[in-house]
User: Which sequence fits this backbone?
């Protein structure tokens, strides 16, 4: 079965804040569960500061596990990770995270504002209100977190992830749960925040068009690092076939200015 | 004697102050207990503390303090087994509390004759609280209230989502452990008021009542404390006037508020 698609590849529109300094350095990372089942093996890479790095790979390829290891949520079985020159757990105050799913008890009586306040006690209340307004969430300030729609919850999680001006923003399939119309707006918002704060973005995504449009660096993951580099070099039918095990054709087209 | 004159009697004043102290911290802590679905933990630690009561009775030590010691120990064991085994918390609590309760019964059977302490610990008897008990309850309650007030954020984030809590800089393992200890101490303190059988009522009923009506976490905490204090005052007054068991009437008062909240919520929905 052959899949084909056309993508406007990311040009140099974010070069203004790309730095050669690495925001994240990974050396020989491996992770396996307690029973010895290997999830990640022999991963080494670096992500430049100020870049957008997107992790792609089939289901069960270890993308979320890799992201959680970078965040320090799970300890690697072997190898090392440096985030902003620190161990991941020490870099916590300097990173933001939008999870793929945020499973909360819908009856949990916490308002959107309380949630944001408790997540970042050092951030002034005015700043929280500014972001709520900026992302069109002011009307939901006193709404229960559990009563929000999927899109509203993702926006709240985005606000939480950027309130403290993180140097690195981790996003795990952040548009899952948002409808097709909202998805475009959502990614525009992420890109806008990225331009505004000049931070590094590390995102897991299933969508090759998102990778082509936004990524400076692609990390193709299938238990190990299959390929790593600029989208135009990496997103080839051969590497995608190697990654997903299916024939894929890609067509590049110029984006209308 | 009317109730206002009665509340000037020293033994009833001691009961009122101890009840208000416990009516403050049990529902406050209960907010996090109910949000974490840990209601069974309260029953478990309370029942297990009978082993501590028995040790105190047999050794001549203060049964109250030995019960606090055993309560903390059981809380720590539950925490460790939860993290080190694949068993669900309710199963672990079921195993530990029935074991410790049985140890307590066997130890108490070694003591000959009538044991007034046993009935007092099983069903609570706040009217027998002496100055020493009141001092212990007040000091512990004050300390626990201050700790809860200062760790409200951490306990809320832990109850909401452990990943989020960790990423917001909270040392989740440490705070979880600390939560189990403080919960165990609070439950054993509450045994003086309501007894082993009923103590978890003040931990569960006022927070559940408040959750039905509150729109925010702040509202739930305040509502829970107010509900707990009202249940203590109403329970003491009614039990004195009608000569009913105090602990049971306090629980029935809390339950009455709970069913009123159910009705209010139902009226709002329809």
Assistant:
């Amino acid at each position: 079965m052959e899949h084909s698609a056309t993508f406007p590849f990311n040009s140099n529109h974010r070069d203004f804040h790309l730095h050669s300094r690495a925001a994240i350095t990974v050396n020989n990372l491996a992770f396996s569960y307690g029973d010895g089942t290997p999830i990640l093996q022999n991963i080494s890479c670096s992500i430049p500061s100020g870049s957008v790095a997107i992790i792609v790979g089939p289901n069960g390829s270890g993308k979320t596990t890799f992201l959680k290891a970078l965040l320090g949520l799970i300890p690697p079985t072997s190898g090392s990770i440096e985030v902003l020159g620190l161990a991941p757990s020490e870099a916590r105050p300097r990173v933001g995270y939008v999870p793929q799913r945020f499973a909360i008890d819908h009856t949990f009586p916490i308002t959107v504002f309380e949630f944001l306040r408790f997540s970042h006690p050092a951030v002034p209340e005015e700043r929280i209100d500014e972001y709520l307004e900026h992302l069109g969430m002011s009307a939901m300030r006193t709404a229960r977190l559990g009563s929000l729609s999927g899109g509203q919850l993702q926006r709240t999680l985005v606000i939480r992830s950027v309130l403290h001006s993180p140097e690195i923003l981790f996003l795990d399939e952040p548009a899952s749960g948002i409808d097709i119309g909202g998805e475009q707006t959502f990614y525009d918002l992420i890109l806008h925040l990225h331009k505004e704060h000049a931070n590094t973005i590390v995102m897991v995504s299933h969508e090759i068009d998102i990778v082509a449009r936004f990524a400076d660096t692609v990390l193709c993951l299938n238990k190990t690092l299959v390929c790593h580099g600029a989208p135009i070099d990496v997103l080839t039918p051969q590497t995608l076939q190697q990654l997903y095990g299916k024939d894929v054709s890609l067509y590049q087209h110029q984006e209308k200015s | 004697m009317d109730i206002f004159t009665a509340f000037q009697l020293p033994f009833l004043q001691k009961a009122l102050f101890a009840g208000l102290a416990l009516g403050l911290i049990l529902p406050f802590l209960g907010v996090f207990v109910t949000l974490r679905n840990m209601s069974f933990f309260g029953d478990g630690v309370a029942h297990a503390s009978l082993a501590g009561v028995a040790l105190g009775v047999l050794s001549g030590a203060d049964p109250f303090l030995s019960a606090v010691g055993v309560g903390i120990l059981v809380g720590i064991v539950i925490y460790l087994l939860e993290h080190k085994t694949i068993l669900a918390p309710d199963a672990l609590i079921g195993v530990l509390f029935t074991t410790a309760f049985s140890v307590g019964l066997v130890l108490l059977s070694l003591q000959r004759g009538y044991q007034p302490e046993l009935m007092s610990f099983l069903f609570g008897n706040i009217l027998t609280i002496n100055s020493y008990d009141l001092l212990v309850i007040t000091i512990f309650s004050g300390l626990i209230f201050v700790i809860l007030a200062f760790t409200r954020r951490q306990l809320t984030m832990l109850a909401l989502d452990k990943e989020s809590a960790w990423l917001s800089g909270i040392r989740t393992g440490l705070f979880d452990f600390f939560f189990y200890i403080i919960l165990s101490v609070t439950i054993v303190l509450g045994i003086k008021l309501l007894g082993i059988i009923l103590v978890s009522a003040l931990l569960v009923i006022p927070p559940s009542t408040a959750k039905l009506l509150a729109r925010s976490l702040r509202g739930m905490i305040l509502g829970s404390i107010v509900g707990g204090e009202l249940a203590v005052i109403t329970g003491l007054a009614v039990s004195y006037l009608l000569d009913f068991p105090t602990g049971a009437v306090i629980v029935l008062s809390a339950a009455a508020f709970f069913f009123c909240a159910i009705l209010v919520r139902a009226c709002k929905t329809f």
